[in-house]
Design brief:
158 residues, globular, single chain, alpha+beta, Aminopeptidase
Length: 158
């Protein structure tokens, strides 16, 4: 397995994996997520590939087929005047093909992202996990991540 920056030839495979992630989220929150959709379209992915501040890394097998990805965003802190300035690499989405899980691909992708964050001079790597996605929470805790903040909601009756 190799990890590299995503290329246009990876887009259709990334779309398939985005569908797998969406289904996980739709199962957890059917009130928010629409089954059978994806977070990005082909044209949006093509545009994203050119953005240095939003790198997409892919794990590929021996046939150079994408088996996992990590969408990242370089963020400059502070968001307010009461914070020390620093850079952060936010993992917007990380996925391993459901048929390739258990092969440490997610761990390799996460380690790769951590190394890229260090190379970019980042202070931290962050991400969000939906409540109810316990397998993701356990995975990230195993990778050494700790809860930084919690976002809470109150759903209004309609």
């Amino acid at each position: 397995m190799t990890i590299r920056k995503a290329e246009e030839k990876d887009i259709l495979r990334i779309i398939e994996l985005l569908g797998q992630v969406l289904q996980i989220h739709a199962d957890i929150r059917p009130d928010i997520f629409i089954p059978g959709t994806t977070k990005y379209t082909v044209s949006q992915l093509t545009e994203l590939l050119g953005k240095e501040e939003k790198p997409i890394y892919v794990a590929v097998n021996e046939e150079d087929v994408c088996v996992g990805y990590a969408f990242c965003q370089l963020q400059e802190q502070p968001f307010s005047t009461n914070m020390v300035p620093f850079k952060s690499l936010f993992i917007d989405d990380l996925c391993v093909d459901q048929h390739a899980r258990g092969q440490h691909i997610g761990e390799s992708l996460f380690e790769y992202v951590k190394n890229e964050a260090k190379r970019m001079g980042c202070y931290e790597v962050t991400l969000n996990v939906w409540a109810g996605n316990t397998s993701a929470e356990k995975f990230y805790e195993k990778m050494g991540m700790k809860t930084k903040e919690r976002q809470m909601e109150y759903i209004l009756e309609h």
